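The freezer alarm interrupted the setup, so I double-checked each line after restarting. Inputs confirmed:
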Amino acid sequence: MLKLIRAVALPSLFALTACGTDPAPEPVEQIIVREPGAAPAATAAASVANDPAATLIAEGKAAFANCAACHTVEKGAASGAGPNLFGIVGTKAGQVAGFSYSDALKASGITWTASELNGYIANPATKVPGTTMIAGAIAEPAKRQAVIAYIESVAAN
Ligand code: HEC
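Predicted 3D structure, all chains:
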């Protein structure tokens, strides 16, 4: 009970002493936590802000979270529920070695241009009826564009 009263009384005491004295502003301390080896946040943000292509790729990398449950994109990475997507832009559909594709995708005759990828990611089953990619579609055109830019950027590096 005593504690409770003090807790209530103290702030009002402070309020009284502060009244009219115009105290100097408290120093504000900012602690930036980052992983060892990671680029300092400010520098990374600044360079991305100055480079629209880098911004798009960064957005695409974030949006690739929609795909990462099933797809890897790094060179030589194992396929998951979906095939590895390294270097997919410009290749024929259904060609990743060792992946078990649907007959529908194998027979689609698609070459994965950015525009074909855009259609497939927007709605796989509309683009390729019978495809076994049953999730991961992205409705927003800008996000699709970013994901495609990201996939291309991985292969370009
Ligand atoms: C639920 C798992 C899943 C998710 C999530 C998913 N995919 Fe797929 N994806 C697949 C499967 C399975 C296939 C193979 C489809 C087939 O054989 O019909 C595939 C095929 C593909 C292909 C054709 C590859 C080739 O070798 O021809 C592309 C391109 C692709 N996915 C891109 C994406 C992108 C980009 C995303 C995220 C926006 C995504 N996928 C999300 C499962 C997924």
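Quick read of the result. Residues 66-67, 69-71, 81-83, 85, 88, 93-96, 101-102, 104-105, 112, 117, 120-121, 131-133, 135-136, 138, 147 surround heme C (CB under 6 Å).
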